[in-house]
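Quick one: structure for this chain?
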Amino acid sequence: MRRKMRMKEPTPADGVKRSVNLVDLIRGKGVSLKKVGKTFVGLCPFHKETKPSFTVDPGKSLWHCFGCDRGGDAFTFLQELEGLTFAQALGALGGGSQGGNGKKSPSVPQSSPARTAGTHELFDRVIDFYHKTFFEDTRGLEYLRDRRSLQDKEIYETFRVGFANGSLLHTLPKSGEIIDTLKELGILTSGGKEFLYHRVTVPIFNEDGQAVGIYGRSIDESSSVPHLYLPGPHQGVFNWQAAKRSRDLLLTEGIIDALSLYQAGFKDVISLYGVKGLTPDHLALFKKYRTKKIFLTFDNDAAGEEACRPLAEALSPVECFRVVLPVKDANDFFRDHTSEEFTALCAQALPVTVTKASEPVTKERFDDGFSLIFPAISYRVKLIPTFDERLKVTIKALWDGGEKTFLDTVDLYSHRSRQAAINQIAKKGDLSKERVETHFLLILDEMERFATEIRHSEHSAPPVNEMSDEEREEALRFLRSPGLVEEILHDMEMQGYVGEDSNKLLAYLIGISRKLDKPLSGIISSSSGAGKSHLAELVESLTPPEDVILFSRLSPQALGYMEKDFLRRKLLIIEERKGSESADYSIRTLQSRHKLTQGVVIKDPASGRMYTKTYTVEGPIAYLETTTDGMVNPENSTRCFELSLDESKEQTRKVQDQQKSARTIDGMVRKESGGHLIRKHQNAQRLLAGLKVVIPYAPLIEFPSEWLRTRRDNERFLCLIEAICFLHQHQREVKQSSDVGENGSPVSYIEATVEDYRLAYDLAKDVLSHTLHDLGRHSREMLDEIVRMAEERAATSSREPHEMVFSRREVREFTCWSDWKVRECLSQLVDLEYLKVLSGSQGKMCVYQVSDLASDPERSAQGFTSPEELEEKLGYLITK
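Got it. Here's what it folds into:
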């Protein structure tokens, strides 16, 4: 039953409020309002906005802004707008003043509707009805799926997503207690219509599991009020369970962004009611479950940035970090980016710190650190080199003329370490904790800049040695040699790398492509000990030292803080992929956009204001990395040539023979002459000028188009032709374009030949056929071995090859591969149904059989124009 409400006695203020036309009052204060249904909307007078979020309900004589979360009646509007007291607002509206009768004017009630067992049950029934309608009338589902990319059914079920299409009214009586209760709850308007009509609905619950609110998102993108919550103060917290699960949370402006993060696998996410929609329920929840860190994932706009500092102040002592998105909001981000890329952004998030007031400071720089001198205290800070992502320093603080001191080691990226030092300094120096926290923020900013400068100086390019006339002539002879490619392969073999001609040449071309507008990238893949590091080291040694950068490990933000031109037209080599996985997002951005731009929230030491600073690192870069992982991330493989090394017995014999030969007299002579060969190649690469390359026959090239990834593969193949032509530039005629370039001069260029195409075709056709296959290189090789083993066994029996069965041990003995490699490949072959598992589980021996799929032809580069076909097309055009 509905609880009977005791009617209170009307007051003079109630009469004044009923007599005031709220729409006319607000319009009279300069706010333009437009009628939408039975409400009016406009731009909020209390904060800057470009899209209306300010609504006025004349029927209820109430106004509310969904942007800044302010609201109330006529009295509160005047109080907020003109800074009046309630008595002054009452007088301005013609209701007299407080002093007339000596009684205090009553405040406007802003409580939510009373909740009883009956109303909670009715609330749940409405939510269930909307949830059922969501799947029956698919307009809401299609909106989330097509316009918001929210297609995970788990989200629909977990959060009881619904759709209000007006059909709820058909299930209700025309009048009575249920209608009255639904109006009190705000689900129905005073006129009996659905308040959230034509909107996707998401209910909001409290910790007792009771629904206390509903969010509605209009499926009409042109709606002037896209976001709505039920009337009354906001209660409950969307996905409050996240705070119970984790002490580190993501916080979004609204529910759509939170759902996007949840779908991407970030389930510890909670939403606000807008950027200024932090409620007591949020604060109580974070305090109860001792939330430690909150990552503010707000919109990438002025409102999102401005909200961070006051929110961090309200959430204190919880640590807040701003996640700067490269797009408008989290929902947009996951349409074109991966979860790994978002994790990288979180790793780069900087703390949001509130500073009260600035004070004068003097800075002094030293070789190992700096000093910050304030009026009451000074700090001497020294950097401690580390091999991880910590920022460790020694801090010596002095005050009272040096009579009092503090000395300790502090990790500036550790909240606990910082707070321990801050507490001790504040206590010993009789300073406020807030003041010392301000000092430490300046120390953190200054030390980050100092550490970045140190890192850049350590990786600065070495000086370039001038070539002698003899060295220049030798390098030119090398570049003009008709057998240039053969000489490159010969020199690389003289340096101790035998066999692998295609991989060696492709790696060499990747190195020189750094001088092109669109350089190449490569991933050298093999088992441990197969020679991948040796190949990368060989390419590094043949590249001029000033043009190559080698890293064993990269932290997520390492590339973003380098000098603007530090990476420009460089060959970047990562010794082992495991050391750069956290920097994948930055590397892929450099490969695709040839530029890395990031916004970092920092503090102005003078004003204490937080602002976003842009760091830009220019490319392009050529990229080479090594890995033992047989399966390459598709995000990386579509940008790189995969150089899978030969692990056959024949190649092993070649390597062993070379190792023995290196111990002979001839081997010693070759080693002594190695330095001369390296200088020759380095000088030759220095003589490669930045010429443009034109491929005149490019329109005649046909390339496979059955798979989406071939869009990038086609581009990489054309870039490979350019690199080969670029290598032979001293054997080509330099031509001038008829049009002028940016500098006002004709553009110099060279043209690729059919021979360049032939070499590119020979290098790329095997690589492309491998990358277009759904199996990794090692798994394909194992499948070939297994099929060969089955055929040999079938030849001595009366059965077909696909009827033969075998165990993992038999595969290991037949291939002579290591057990871990056999396990890895068999697992993939079974997952992709090239092999069938006939028996084996819970420790029992597995028995396999080749499936029919194994006999299907591999994906190949069908439709890929061969050199002969290209020559035929060119000949036809010439005769025509």
